[in-house]
Amino acid sequence: MEQRMENEKVTPVTGAGFDPAHIPGLTPPVRESESEEATEAAEPAEEVTPEPEAEEPTREEPPEASPGKEPEADGPAMEAEDRRGSITVDATGVRFTLDDQEADFTWDEISAVEYGTVRKRLTVTVHMPNSRWFPNDVEAPDKARLAEWTDQLDKALDTYFEE
After folding, report:
1. Count of CB atoms within 10 A of residue 89's CB?
2. CATH number, span 76-160
3. What is the pTM of this model?
C-alpha cells in the first residue's frame, strides 16, 4: 500500500522521520518528573543538608487502574493476538502492539477503521483525520478463531465507532 503524496507542493516530514514520539500513541508521553530530572542532571548539584520530615499517617488507597489497559465491562471488546503482536478494540479505542512497541488510538482521534482477512491473517487499519493510516495484523491459529475475531470486531466497531 502506498500513501498519496500531493504533487503541487511537497513538504518534508520533519517530526516523524527523526522522532518516533511525533506519531501519536506510538510512545508514552514524557512525564514532568523525568524531564525535570534530565534538566537537574545537566546542572551542577548543590549540596543540600537533609531536613527531618514529619511522618504523615499512611492511608491505603486502592491501586489505580492503568489507563487503557483494561476494557470497560459495559460493552463488547475484541482482542486478537499472536506470537508477535496483538490488536485490541474496546471502549477506550484501538490498541496495536508489535514486539515491544505499542500504539493507542482513542475513538475521538480516529476517522475510520477498516479490516480485512487473508487466509488466517486479520489486518486492522486505523485511519486518522490527517490522511495517515496505521495497519497492524495478527495471525489466527485456525479459521474458526479468525471468524470469531471478525464477529467480535464487527460488534465492537458498531458499538463504539460513530459514523
Report:
1. 29
2. 2.30.29
3. 0.55
